[in-house]
Amino acid sequence: MMNYNKIIYGIGIVASLLTIQSCDKIKDFDDLNVNPNLTTSPIPSALLTNVQSNLGANLVFDAGGANTGSGLYAQYFSETQYTEVSRYNKPNYNYDAYYVGPLNDLQNIINYNSDPATAGTAAIYGSNKNQIAIARILKAHYVKFLTDITGDLPYFNALKGGSGVITSAYDAQSAIYADLLKELTEAVDQFDNGTTVQGDIIYAGNVAKWKKYANSLRLLIAINMLKVDANAGKAAFTAALAHSAGVISENSDNVVINYVGGTFPNPFYNYYNITLRLDFAESKTMTDQLSSTNDARINVYGSSSKGFPYGLTRDNAILFANANPDYANILAPAQRQTNSPLTILSAGYINLVRAEAAHRGWTTENKNTLYATGIQASYDQWALGSAATFIASAPIALTGAASDLTKIATQEWVAAYPNGLEGYNIYRRTGIPALTPAPGTTAIPRRAPYGTNDYSYNSANVGPAAAGYTVNGISDSQYGRIWWDKP
Q1: Nearest to 148 by CA among 422, 410, 346, 472
Q2: Domain count, the chain
Q3: pLDDT digits (tens, 9 = 90+) for 450-474
Q4: Of 188, 180, 213, 179, nearest to 130 (Cα)?
Q5: pTM for the whole thing?
Q6: How far is CA 204 from the centre of its chain?
Q7: By residue range, what is the domain housing residue 102?
Q8: Is 467 within a domain?
Q9: Are 445 and 427 in contact (CB under 8 A)?
Q10: Is 63 left (phi over 0), alpha (psi -120 to 50) or beta?
């Protein structure tokens, strides 16, 4: 993941004096000038802004990190010179920075607002219950991200000390999933009509939108359970969908980070224009899908329509790059300016997940309507106009046949781009699209193994967890399947 400490933390204490109910997102970014972890007392609004400002990099594109690895396994991206991960060399991703950074900050918000000795001071920054609820939702999203990548994790006892140090046991993903559903359900029902939460650069303290965010995460957790516990997954899915607060259904509900540039640039801009790296490109797998169906998203998903072949050897990748300097970088330049917004969770994707659930008989919703609505919402997200002709075209239109699942899941995979983990989840859950492993390899990895820090600092507990992912006598195998990923 990105170095969490690179961000200069904090919001000036003046934030506590603001009486306006709307959140000035530019101000909240630009006022990050005090490190709340170095103050006598936490500044909840600063911790919240800091966590949110890092969501785009941490959950969508952290160059060289676990989420980029997921994007490689989902074949959203191709490596252009150092091709080890996309050729399935065993990666080494350390997750402890998430515990020391965002998860610890979110736990501090929860603790500070929960403790009777500090809750009064914390309330300067908004309703105690609302601060806690928002922190629980974001914490659940981070934990879902981590457990979906690697499986069993330190969870129930990992943050109780508030230090971010991971020395606790690895909890079963099944138990983590159950607790995440509980946390999200309770968070939605915890919101009150108290004062607006300060430091919220996603929804400006809009409670209705936070509830939709939480319920949408419940949908994603539930649909992942379809192969391992379909009854529980269906029950969780329908409960979230039936909640009176609703789910993300329109682009105005999207979880979006509106970067302001400067010290806080869009992570793709940062990668290509500030760090000046060119290690990752849009995969030919994606450009082939878009071009073969005349999908207008080909104009925004990459800098050109020439995708980079996936999984080449280093020598062949360099040869291709030299011969094709116009290969597609990730996102068109207009979509990765320094202040370009980055969507974390979209209405297009959520509507398509609902279409999948309807196709599977989990709900009585109209899958055709949800499918068309999801694709159009994705087009609208990228300002591409009407998708009507595209939706009605032969390769895309639903026909009522069993093959509709392939079309729906493929469109989920397309709509989730460039969020690599969600693309990887779709592939592992459905087997769609039918991705071909890198040339000369036989199988796509099913998870990322534990990092060296797990073995260095939590050696007493990592062994039993790693043994649960033994394949062909190799412990902690990247070909071991996480709990919900069944053949």
Answers
A1: 422
A2: 1
A3: 999 999 989 999 999 999 999 999 9
A4: 188
A5: 0.93
A6: 20
A7: 4-262+341-430
A8: no
A9: no
A10: beta
